[in-house]
Amino acid sequence: MPPPAQFVFRGPIQRRDRVAVCGYHGWQDWYIGSTARWRGVPEAVRNLTHTFPYNDLDARETLLQQYPAEFAAVILEPMNVIEPAPGYLAGVKDLTQRHGAVLIFDETVTGFRYANGGAQEFFGVTPDLATFGKGMANGYPLSAIAGRGDIMKLMEEIFFLHVWWRDLSLAAALATLEKLLARTRGRGRGSQWETLRLAVEGQIEQHQLSEWLGVSGHPSWTFLTLKDAPGCTTLESKTLLMQELLLRGVLWIGSHNMSYAHAQEDIDQLTAAYDAAFSLLRQAIESGRPQALFAL
Ligand SMILES: Cc1ncc(COP(=O)(O)O)c(C=O)c1O
């Protein structure tokens, strides 16, 4: 018996099962099956997700050409650690459209952060769909998907619901968005958040660590990038930095997710902690015995 008319799948992505991914997109089977930690994910699912490297349009083209008319969607974080090369995001959009697939920007982090309109506003490239979360409700559990009307209409044929669905998060999102709309303080170049990036860059230079340590990303979401040094692996450097920052009251995983709640004194506390931590890191690299500096 054919399915009832309202459950018949329509639209351009009919009968396409493959997804091309670039970035981190969560723990569900369709994504995590493409990573090294795929245990429990059926092979049939794993085979449908393909990764592609960032900032490499040729690799993207090759992948899409490998399975003509089989890719339903291309999903990527528009930016995380590295800036998109000039024309990269527009190129991804063009390529995706030419292959008849749907372009999704995963703006779980960049949404409401790079700009109120997310990375798509910041870079001036609009995808077909975009996902949002995190900053949208200022930490309350909420996520959203938005995009082209004809694709969004298909949601009527997709069941989604969960136990912890609460309206409290919607109220938090409304309050957050009102505040974000009212803020005029910058988040990009020249903003207070960029002063943090510049300060940390200066400290890295001052402690002569530039060979192994750097800062990258948008001022609202920067990362310390670490490399293996002779006698001190990336993991050892990170362990040492984490230890020293924790000792100084900073919970640290290597990135700076800035928010309007951060005041100058928070930035000062962080840079003071970095000063001490970088000094120890330099010592660890010079001595080649980082483990001797571990507190435990
Ligand atoms: C870019 C990006 N996409 C997706 C996710 C996953 O979100 P969730 O755990 O709510 O599925 C994350 C979470 O860290 C993320 O950073």
Strand order of the largest sheet: 2-1-3-4-5-6
Distance between the termini: 66 Å
CATH class of the largest domain: Alpha Beta
Number of strands: 9
Please bin the fraction of helical residues: 25-40%
* N-to-C SSE string, H for helix and E for strand: EHHEHEHEHEEHHHEEHEH
The fraction of residues in strands falls at 5-15%
**Overall number of structural domains:** 2
Described by strand count, sense and barrel closure, the largest sheet is: 6 strands, mixed
By CATH, the superfamily of the largest domain comes out as Type I PLP-dependent aspartate aminotransferase-like (Major domain)
Bound molecules: pyridoxal-5'-phosphate
Number of DSSP helical runs: 10
Q: Mean pLDDT across all residues, rounded?
A: 92
Q: What is the alpha-carbon Rg in Å?
A: 22 Å
Determine the structural class based on helices, strands and strand pairing: alpha/beta
As for the CATH topology of the largest domain, it is Aspartate Aminotransferase, domain 2
Extract low-pLDDT stretches.
Answer: 1-13
CATH architecture level-2 label of the largest domain: 3-Layer(aba) Sandwich
